[in-house]
Amino acid sequence: MSASSPTSPRLPQIREDTVFNRLVIFSPARSRRPSDFKFHPPDGAPNNNPNPPSCPFCLGRERECAPEIFRIPPGTDDWKIRVIENLYPALRRDLEGSQVGDRGEAGCDEGRRAVIGFGFHDVVIETPFHSIHLPDLSAAEIGEVVLSYRERVRQLSNHGSIEYVQVFKNYGASAGASMTHSHAQMIALPLVPPTVSARLDSMKEVFDKSGKCGICEAQSANILINESGHFFAVVPFAASFPFEVWIIPREHTPYFHDLDEQKAVDFGGLLKLILLKLSKQLNDPPYNYMIHSSPFHLPASHLPCAHWFIQIVPQLNAVGGFELGSGCYINPIFPEDAAEILSYEEED
Amino acid sequence: MSASSPTSPRLPQIREDTVFNRLVIFSPARSRRPSDFKFHPPDGAPNNNPNPPSCPFCLGRERECAPEIFRIPPGTDDWKIRVIENLYPALRRDLEGSQVGDRGEAGCDEGRRAVIGFGFHDVVIETPFHSIHLPDLSAAEIGEVVLSYRERVRQLSNHGSIEYVQVFKNYGASAGASMTHSHAQMIALPLVPPTVSARLDSMKEVFDKSGKCGICEAQSANILINESGHFFAVVPFAASFPFEVWIIPREHTPYFHDLDEQKAVDFGGLLKLILLKLSKQLNDPPYNYMIHSSPFHLPASHLPCAHWFIQIVPQLNAVGGFELGSGCYINPIFPEDAAEILSYEEED
Ligand SMILES: Nc1ncnc2c1ncn2[C@@H]1O[C@H](COP(=O)(O)OP(=O)(O)O[C@H]2O[C@H](CO)[C@@H](O)[C@H](O)[C@H]2O)[C@@H](O)[C@H]1O
Ligand SMILES: Nc1ncnc2c1ncn2[C@@H]1O[C@H](COP(=O)(O)OP(=O)(O)O[C@H]2O[C@H](CO)[C@@H](O)[C@H](O)[C@H]2O)[C@@H](O)[C@H]1O
């Protein structure tokens, strides 16, 4: 399973990420560069705060939260998971049908394109206990968390005005998190983001050219880390970030929210394993994960090419002006080398 | 010049950025959300280190640097600006014509796309003195710095295998900087990054539809901050980041490296003013700037639609999983409000 070690230092390569349509520069030399900053943020900020003065996501503090959408199990005080509205939402569910300027706010001029900020922004509280993090849960419990994401995405998919839902998790301040209690979020948008359309266009292009799905083909010996019955985990061939991992369903299927109960538990086990490995090998790094699913009204031309997956990104470095400007990423670690490190199995 | 204050709290909007083809959610409610992290990285990391144990970019330490490309003024020990090779380059200038696998390194299989990491990665040392930052220089001196960028881009534009040069600056650890001595960088690529092509395609689409250039049109009263003879500075209508500023040449022209001496000094003055304002209003934030110019071999169809500009982005928050996953940004500050704050003029 593990890749063979390179005999000599690797030369830099520019690889094409055909899913996100971006170039990634792999350059091991970059990892040796010095820094004269006294503090580096990723080291300076602990990911956890075991005793915050008050945490509205903890058991017993439900009244300090925005309204609940559902809990698991339903109708009990002794909940395991809660899906709630975000108290500081990016988009507002009460604005459906409103137009920019309706309520006297500043509109936009000269044909600039703006729509009112209608949409849904929800939080999934993944455990009632502040000290528990997602990978501390069992495979079956993580499966339940994943099913709660699925359940809420299903509800949102039935809303006629919603086109796309982004499910994501922020863990640690450098990954953007403002709350330390284990949670994920989802934002439901009335438009398909151009970046999401571009991903699906890019996958269609690969499909049309090669007759193959780029996500199905991502499984290759030297970048494979782990497998389960229904999923496999790889460091992608053109990973933008060091130690980035994708968990991919073996079944070529466009929608995350079609996941069934059995596969959710299988997925939970693999997600747990990967998060534990990243935590162990990289010393509990901040990370994000993003579920890349498909827009709800995907054109029939694109449906056969779509394949959902989850992208897990440890946040080890701040990105800089090169990435912001060019959209290219610089990754000092070749995926084959990252995969080798993440392939080590515990002895016990 | 300043925009009128909104009378009621603004409702969220989703705006379309037609240059970078991305959606941006403007949501003032987001700025009120709490955080239970004990430390937040942007506050924790000072941007400067006045006395690093040793800085290779300082006057007298030239021998600790990678080879020099040129200095200003030429042939003097008492230099003002040096353009040097990056000692830990992302791309290597000695690899032209090499193929992946040529030197026995691991190649790529199954038709995955990779090319050898040929290219140029240079550093511009903007002052010989460690304690001086770019906006401390005079307009004329900043003009000289900008002309040194231009000079190196011109040299690289004459290299037949180079397609695009990204000029950028990282200031402060949260903006990715590893060195505190004032500097910028540029990376010359043998391929046009897809994100850069997408920007030019997007501008062409606007041009074809409206007959107008989206960059020329960016000048509008409520987002304008400052003007000079040849440039204007705005917070763009669909700014991805709070207090992001673009400085745009009035002349509709595709290439930064066509800038002449007189305009460079004019530009230097406006850049200085904006950097001083950001530093004052936002308490010396980390920031990046990126020069968005055009690929050297831009197709004739796109040439009339292209217009270079510089994007200045204060780094006030870490981005999270939503932005990474969907490519949409959430900005808690409406551009009109940011522009109003940045429009205040000093009395003295
Ligand atoms: N009592 C309460 N009831 C209900 N909800 C509550 C609440 N108190 C707080 N919240 C919400 O809980 C959420 C916690 O989310 P995270 O910690 O994952 O990151 P956040 O969304 O703050 O920002 C990160 O993620 C977003 C999206 O990627 C980025 O835009 C941003 O820059 C980054 O910091 C916040 O959105 C907050 O509004
Ligand atoms: N003696 C010497 N001679 C010559 N050059 C020397 C040198 N010592 C150091 N250098 C180079 O000086 C540069 C300083 O650059 P910055 O501080 O702007 O950020 P850096 O490139 O490290 O990374 C940031 O910018 C890049 C590009 O955006 C991101 O990939 C990255 O994540 C982010 O931290 C480094 O590239 C380093 O290699």
From TrEMBL, chains A, B:
<dbReference type="InterPro" id="IPR001937">
    <property type="entry name" value="GalP_UDPtransf1"/>
</dbReference>
<feature type="binding site">
    <location>
        <position position="58"/>
    </location>
    <ligand>
        <name>Zn(2+)</name>
    </ligand>
</feature>
<feature type="domain" description="Galactose-1-phosphate uridyl transferase N-terminal">
    <location>
        <begin position="20"/>
        <end position="193"/>
    </location>
</feature>
<dbReference type="Pfam" id="PF01087">
    <property type="entry name" value="GalP_UDP_transf"/>
</dbReference>
<dbReference type="InterPro" id="IPR036265">
    <property type="entry name" value="HIT-like_sf"/>
</dbReference>
<keyword id="KW-0808">Transferase</keyword>
<keyword id="KW-0862">Zinc</keyword>
<dbReference type="GO" id="GO:0006012">
    <property type="term" value="P:galactose metabolic process"/>
</dbReference>
<dbReference type="GO" id="GO:0008108">
    <property type="term" value="F:UDP-glucose:hexose-1-phosphate uridylyltransferase activity"/>
</dbReference>
<keyword id="KW-0479">Metal-binding</keyword>
<dbReference type="InterPro" id="IPR053177">
    <property type="entry name" value="ADP-glucose_phosphorylase"/>
</dbReference>
<dbReference type="InterPro" id="IPR005849">
    <property type="entry name" value="GalP_Utransf_N"/>
</dbReference>
<feature type="active site" description="Tele-UMP-histidine intermediate">
    <location>
        <position position="183"/>
    </location>
</feature>
<feature type="binding site">
    <location>
        <position position="55"/>
    </location>
    <ligand>
        <name>Zn(2+)</name>
    </ligand>
</feature>
<keyword id="KW-0548">Nucleotidyltransferase</keyword>
<keyword id="KW-0119">Carbohydrate metabolism</keyword>
<protein>
    <submittedName>
        <fullName>Galactose-1-phosphate uridyltransferase</fullName>
    </submittedName>
</protein>
<dbReference type="GO" id="GO:0008270">
    <property type="term" value="F:zinc ion binding"/>
</dbReference>
<feature type="binding site">
    <location>
        <position position="181"/>
    </location>
    <ligand>
        <name>Zn(2+)</name>
    </ligand>
</feature>
<feature type="binding site">
    <location>
        <position position="130"/>
    </location>
    <ligand>
        <name>Zn(2+)</name>
    </ligand>
</feature>
